[in-house]
Amino acid sequence: MENIVALCKRRGFLFQSSEIYGGLNGFWDYGPLGVLLKRNVKDAWWNDMIMSHNELVISGGAPGTYEMTGLDCTIIMHPQIWKCSGHYDLFHDFMVDCRETKKRYRYDHILGRFVLAASPATRVFVTTLETENTQAALDEAALKFFGLRKKDLDKLQWEGEIMSLPDAMRSAGGAANVLGPDAKTPDTLTEPREFNLMFKTTIGALGTEEDTAFLRPETAQGIFANFKNVCDSTRLRVPFGIAQVGKSFRNEITPRNFTFRSREFEQMEIEFFCHPSQSAQWYAYWRDRRFAWYIEMGLAGERLQLREHGATELSHYSCGTADIEYQFPFLPPGEFGELEGIAHRGDFDLRSHMEGKLVKEGCELVLEKLPNGQPKHRGSGKDLTYYDDLTKERFTPHVIEPSAGADRATLAFLCEAYQVDTAPDEKGQPQERVYLKFHPRLAPIKAAVFPLVKKDGMPEIATEIYGELKKQFSVFYDDKSAVGRRYRRQDEIGTPFCITVDGQTVQDGTVTIRDRDTLKQERIKRDDLVKELSQRLG
Ligand code: GAP
């Protein structure tokens, strides 16, 4: 992974945000090549899912024909959207930091028990995080703290039951003498602080609490909020999908693993609306379609997997969810990281925005109410049901949501592309070669154009070719240093083809085209270059 990170910085794919000021944790900038790569990922997704979709024919594996369209919604939306969607409540966690170990914990995830030992005569609330045997973990922590050995277990006088840290603080009136998990001395945990995973901002100049708004933590809600607008302004008929690509923001507690968990990232989401009787088939269709897309784009082999969630893992509204996962090199062997989730969301989202925040009661979704019987978060009250004028049926569509991360996909394509082999250098000597084996559709630069040497009319022809190709493709011109070095520089950034103008070009109008992966060079007519490149790039 270090090699990939180093290459990303060296060749201008990714930089740490605000690096000259020491960086900002969880934020990343895409450099000159990174911006091209990520744009190609988003364009490939948009093109394959929306633009090239033919609504007149049944796509392979689909239960019927369907339509696709897109939206571009604002990042800041009405705060009630996040209250009804559940994000406002869900994304509010209380966290404590340990001043000694520098670790951060969810306040209510810390479990412990009061314990006394004769020497030193201290009463401490010893803590741990939940494990298979929490008491054993507490025994170990207490023995360590009191400087006792395993055989001295009976010298510990445990009091009461295992309880959460918030309960202990309540029962001890706030003075619990807490020994944090992994801490050596008590009293190192900070006061619990509200950790809002949604970034707050204020609308308008006064900045009162009523003016609080949030940066969206997902693009999906803008689509639900516009469902009626799309139905009313187009002739789309259910089933149809609405797609959106854009920035999302989450104040992640532990951003890490390069861009994998960032605080500002881009999502590529589809909300697919269908009749409830067909939603299980549509779910299976989208799950398989999205998995196939990553394979088509080059993520093949054992590093990619489709994992269907077990019943206990499903969200309260979901009748089926699958994750598309990739074995990123920064993960421990055998572990996979999520690239995309495909969720069957039933009618949860549209109902939430009609009625208000829903919770599960038994098998039913019901409006969450306050003790006084009022809705906890009131919905819009707008009718978001759909009327099918052919069947004369009114219903609330079910939603299938394929939700992908543009940054995670870009990172996976980068990791998968990174290759090292041995190839002869300009003197014919075998040398280690680092190259990025991108799918040609994703490669930031599609072709490089070189004059073999800077004389004998070659630069003039190469410049002309470059100008012609640039009208259609992302190309690069290079006339500096030995041609072998120029090839290596292009290999390292994943350019699939290098076109060289040499002495023969001047005589017969042919050029060489070199393939990044096979290193094979073919001679083709200069006039055929546009056609040839179009074919090879796919
Ligand atoms: N609307 C559903 C939703 O947002 P999610 O699983 O929270 O679901 C979807 O996010 C995708 O967004 C993930 O599969 C991942 O690719 C990307 N994503 C989520 N959080 C991210 C983060 N902190 N950094 C980078 N990508 C993230």
Word description of this protein:
The protein is of the alpha+beta class and 538 residues long. Helix content is 28%, strand content 30%. It has 15 helices and 29 strands. A seven-stranded mixed sheet has the order 3-13-14-22-17-16-15. The protein has a five-stranded mixed sheet with strand order 26-25-27-28-29, sandwiched between helices. Helix 2 packs across helix 11. The longest helix is centred in the first third of the chain and has 20 residues, at 32-51. The protein is globular and about 95 Å long. The site of glycyl-adenosine-5'-phosphate has 19 residues, from strand 14, strand 17, strand 22 and helix 11. Glycyl-adenosine-5'-phosphate binds next to strand 14, strand 17, strand 22 and helix 11.
pLDDT < 50 runs, ≥5 residues:
none
The distinct bound ligands, ions and cofactors come out as:
glycyl-adenosine-5'-phosphate
The Rg value, from CA coordinates, equals: 29 Å
Distance between the termini: 30 Å
Q: Tell me, rounded to a whole number, the average pLDDT.
A: 93
What is the 3D form? Answer: globular
| Helical proportion, percent range | 25-40%
What about the largest sheet?
7 strands, mixed
Q: What is the total tally of β strands?
A: 29
Which percent range describes the beta-strand content?
A: 25-35%
Count of helix runs: 15
Structural class determined from secondary elements: alpha+beta
| Biggest sheet, spatial arrangement of strands | 3-13-14-22-17-16-15
